[in-house]
Amino acid sequence: MDQISWLLLLYSLPAHRNTQRVAVWRRFKKIGALQLTTSTYLLPDRPAHYEQFQWLTKLIRDSGGEATLVRVREIEGMPPEKLVALFNEARDRDYAVIDKALRGLARDRKTRGEIGNQLNHLTRQFRELRAIDFFQSPRGQEVEVQLEKFGRTSVAKGVTAKVRPQDYRGRTWLTRPRPEIDRVGSAWLVRKLIDPKARFIFAAKVPARSQAVAFDMLDAQFTHVGDECTFETLSKRFGIRDKTIRKIGEMIHDADLDDEKFQRPEAIGLDRVLKGWAKEELPDEEILRRGFECFDALYAFLQRR
User: How far apart are CA 198 and CA 190, in angstroms?
Assistant: First the structure.
């Protein structure tokens, strides 16, 4: 295992400061810090973690306590492998709660809406845990697979697991390079109706511990479901009811999947233009920019009909 540096925060609070003590404990829990002793917490030495511990140090001192933040390369009697295992064990216990709830949800005879709401809640819990799963606990990967499997099954049964647009604003969105009709259309939909300040990046696969919202790629949060393309998935998950968007989704579906499901050939020409721009080796960002202009014009045209 590579050498890991650590951050230790040692603190004390007056016994009568119960409210502040609970607030500090909750903050430690939220950021995923590992409790070594009653008053000692540990995090991997990363810039974001250093800033979080600095904030906690100030909070403790402002509450009348004492706090010391130190960097260490090793802790006697606790090799890196043991510390990593302790972090993973802590996350495993958290993941087990989601796993149990997910298994119970699979047995419940609730309405589609209730199942969708609970699935959304569990998905949000999982993402919050993933953000503090610093060493990629295997249990987390298992729960992620179960969530994706349950989500696909639910959608196939007509249970639309909707998400809240406000949870996806100001985000970075990730998809595969050389975008074609479904990826360009999905990115346009995100920018137009979901996340007006969305930033788009490209990679062949989702990087480990990435905070970007992945779409139309393997292991993505939003991708093909059943016989629906990613544009259709995004429209359903975000509860978009715009009739013009539905028409565009049908066009993208037929162009992307080539199954003539909706008998809407209008976007096939656009798909070929996008592929042509890719063959001309235009930058991915430029393909998106030009594609957005095309979809803006298509949207305006369809609304006037």
Answer: 7
Query: Which residues on neighbouring strands pair with residue 6, listed in sequence order?
Result: 44, 72
Which pLDDT score is estimated for 219? Answer: 74
First to last CA, the chain: 63
Do 94 and 130 meet the contact criterion of CB atoms below 8 Å apart?
A: no
In total, the chain counts a number of residues equal to: 305
**DSSP state letter for 283:** -
Beta partners for residue 8, in sequence order:
42, 70
Hey, how many other C-beta atoms are within 10 angstroms of the C-beta on 132?
A: 17
Residue 171's pLDDT is 94
- Work out the mean pLDDT of the chain and round it to a whole number: 88
DSSP codes of every residue in 207-239: PTT--SEEBSSTT-SB--BTTB-HHHHHHHHTT
CA distances from 151 to 24, 26, 231, 274 (A): 35, 30, 17, 31
As a three-state string, the secondary structure of 140-173 is HHHHHHHHHHHHHHHHHCCCCCCCCHHHHCCCEE
Write the DSSP symbol of residue 206. P
What pTM value is reported for the model?
0.54
Question: Given 3.40.50.620, 3.30.70.240, 3.40.190.10, 2.40.30.20, which CATH number is that of 6-78?
Answer: 3.30.70.240
Cα 109 to chain center, whole Å?
A: 28
User: What residue spans define the domains of the chain?
Assistant: 6-78, 81-156, 165-304
